[in-house]
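User: Hey, my collaborator sent me this sequence without any context and asked if I could get a structure. I don't really work with proteins. Can you help?
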Amino acid sequence: MDVFYDFTELELLQQSVITVGAFDGVHKGHQSIIRAVTEQARLCGSNSTLVTFHPHPATILVPGKKYDLLTTLEEKLEIFKELGLDRVVVISFTDEFRQLDSLQFVCDILFKRIGFCDFVIGYDHAFGKNREGTVSTLRSLADELKFNVIEVPELVDSDFSIKSSSIRQLLKRGEVKSASYALGRPFELRGMVVVGQGRGRMMGYPTANIHINSSDKLIPRPGVYAVKVQTENNSHHGMCNIGFRPTFNDNSDMSIEAHIFERIDDLYDKQIHIQFMEYVRDEQKFNSMEELKIQLDDDRQVSRRALNAFE
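Assistant: No problem. I've predicted the 3D structure and written it out in structure-token form, which is a compact way to encode the shape of the chain:
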């Protein structure tokens, strides 16, 4: 998969199947759109192209407001590659760019600089200044520019709303299992292992303290989770605590600490991925380290059973 961050090296491919969007989370609904792109490209013997934006448009449209990302750009690009796209164009979303109306965006950017003969769009997607562009906008241009519009219907699920906003709410409630279902894979945090205070090791529960790579990444509800931890070479079972260490009255910032069940080599200054499989319990304050140790023993058993159910 080729990735382009500007138009200087981008070849104009008029025989291309294209789609556009922020695709935060690249959830099952997004995946259905991308599959429509790759399948149409395969049928036509053409190129599959996805156009996305960085930073996420919401961070520019609402200045100063923190936007909780389900996926960073790096994570999205990895998923796009797995889904079989030929090329991805990442447009820098700036104050200047946001002023383009829907016709300018489609005609001057997508058609004249990137190229397409088929435009795949989700049923509710909107684009251009003030989100004025819709499927109807594309259909009104189709005859003039000679391209086809392929509308992908809503992905219907009886139990879940497959939308990025709904998935964010699930994660903020700690419902990681439901969020993972909607995403089509476990929700994941990535970060560097940094030096902690060593209290977990004193209780027989050494933890990897994680500094998350992106400050915009959504952090699930505080609590204890059954997790899978991806290190450089292996996948491990474990549990993760997100919270503020109330037992120790640290008055510190939120911490993310993962305990891996098996003994492994030193992880300091290494990148790991934490995949959230199931919520175990709320964070709580204990009267002593001994009480906390007893609870951690129970958490480990609950987490093991939860993780084994996924195997």
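In plain terms: The chain has two domains: 2-152, 164-310. You can pass these tokens on to your collaborator as they are.
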